[in-house]
Amino acid sequence: MSPRGRVCFYSEYVYPLLGRREIEFAGGAEALVARLARGLVARDYEVSIVTCDYGQAARELIDGVVVWRAFRPHVGPPVLRFFHPRLSRAALGLMRADAEVYYVCGAGMPAGLTCDVARLRRAGFVSAAASDYDIVPGLPARGGPLDRWWYRRALRAADAVLAQTEFQRHWFREAFGLESEVLPNVVDLPEQVLDAGQDGLVLWLGTYKAIKRPEWFVELARALPACRFVMAGVVPPPPLTQEVWEAARAAARECPNLEVRGFQTDAELQALRRRTSLVVHTSPVEGFSNVMLEAWAAGLPTVSAVDPDGLVEREGVGEVATDPAALVASVRRLMADPALRRAAGARARRHAEARHAPGVVLDVLCRVLDRVIDSVRRRRGGAG
Q1: Residue 200 to residues 21, 147, 269, 275: CA-CA distances in angstroms?
Q2: Exposed site from 183, 229, 259, 327, fewest CB < 10 Å?
C-alpha cells in the first residue's frame, strides 16, 4: 500500500532521542520532533529525519523512521564550517530524503535551508514555532542577521505555519503578518498516574543555562529547609559554558536539602518523578514547556514562571510565580497541603489527556500535512 505521504523533519540534535544512545544533549524541540515522527509512522506516512552526525550510519531505520546523517556538530574552522560541512551535508541529507513535505520546528538556518530545498524539489514546507523567541518582533535571540533573514524568508514561503499557543498565533499575525494554526505540543501519557499528595520531592528539570534561571530554584531550596529539592538536567557541552552547572553544584554542597544531578536516562528520570510531589519551572520564556507538560501527564502540578495562554491558572493545574518571592510562597503553600497538590495533579492529567495526547495532536497535524501534500501533488500533476 502506498504511504499517505512522505514527510521529512530537519532536526539537528534529535538523534540522541532516536538512537537510544547515552548522548547528553537534546531539548524540548527535539523531543517533540521524535514523538511526532513516530506518531506519523503509525498513521501510515513515510517519515524521515535529517540530523547531525553522532557516529551513526549514513542511513538508519529506527522505529520505522529513516534517519539521514548530516554533519558533525562544531567540526571545522569557524565561518567556513557554516558552508561545509553544515550547509552542504544538511542540504544533501534533505535532498536524499525525497519528501513531499519538509518540516522544521524552530527558527534560524534550519528553517531557511529546508525551505529552499523544498522549493527546489517542488515540495511543501511547514514551519513550526519551538519557542516564543521564534515570534518575537526582530528575533533578537535567533542568531545573526543571516539566520534571521533566512527564517523570515522561510516563513513567508511556508505552505503552513504552526504555533504552539494562541499567544504565538497572535504574534505571528502582529509581527510577521502571517496566519498560523495552533498545533498543541504532544506528550506521552504514562499508564501510572503519580500521587502528587505523597511526601515527596520538589523537582527542577532543564538545561543548566543562565536563561533558565536555575538560581531561583537554589534560593527556593535555601528558603524552605524542611523540603527536599532536586535539580537534574543537561550540562551544556563545549563550546558552551558550564558555569551555571558548577554554580549549582557548589550551592548543593552548602545546602543539605538540595541535590544537583546531571543528565538522567529515561529510567532515572522516571524513578525521580515517582518520588516527586511538585515540579518547578523557572524559565522566563517558553513556547510550551515539555517539562511542565510531562509533569501534568504524570499527574504532577507545577509552579512556573510562565503560563501559556493562561491555562495554568484557568485549569488549576498549578500556580504561576513571576518573581522569587512569589515562587517561595507558592511552593510553601502547595507543599503544606497534600490534598491541594493531589487535586491540582488530577486536573493536570485530565488537561494533558484532553489537549496534548498523541491521538489528539496527530489528528490536527495530519489535517495540515494532508492539505499540503494534496497541494504538492496537484502542483506536480500526479501522486508525488
Answers
A1: 30, 44, 15, 5
A2: 259
* Domains of the chain, first to last: 6-186+357-378 (3.40.50.2000), 201-355 (3.40.50.2000)
- What torsion, rounded to 10 degrees, do the Cα atoms 216, 221, 223, 226 define? 160
Assessment of whether the complete model's pTM goes beyond 0.85: yes
pLDDT digits (tens, 9 = 90+) for 266-304: 889 999 999 999 999 999 877 788 999 999 999 999 999
User: pLDDT per residue over 8-26, tens digit each?
Assistant: 999 999 998 886 655 655 6
**pLDDT for residue 43:** 96
- Quick one: three-class SS letters along the chain? CCCCCEEEEECCCCHHHHCCCCCCCCCHHHHHHHHHHHHHHHCCCEEEEEECCCCCCCEEEECCEEEEECCCCCCCCCCHHHHHHHHHHHHHHHHHHCCCEEEEECCCHHHHHHHHHHHHCCCEEEEECCCHHHCCCCCCCCCCHHHHHHHHHHHHHCCEEEECCHHHHHHHHHHHCCCCEECCCCCCCCCCCCCCCCCCEEEEEEECCHHHCHHHHHHHHHHCCCCCEEEEEECCCCCCCCHHHHHHHHHHHHCCCEEECCCCCHHHHHHHHHCEEEEEECCCCCCCCHHHHHHHHCCCCEEECCCHHHHHHHHCCEEECCCHHHHHHHHHHHHCCHHHHHHHHHHHHHHHHHHCCHHHHHHHHHHHHHHHHHHHHHHHCCCC
Are 6 and 100 within 8 A, CB to CB? yes
If we measure between CA atoms, which residue out of 218, 197, 193, 194 comes closest to residue 336?
Answer: 197
* Residue located via cell numbers 534571521: 148
Which has the closest alpha carbon to 351: 286, 305, 302, 306? 302
Residues 49 and 8: their CA atoms lie apart, in Å, by: 5
CB atoms within 10 A of CB 161: 23
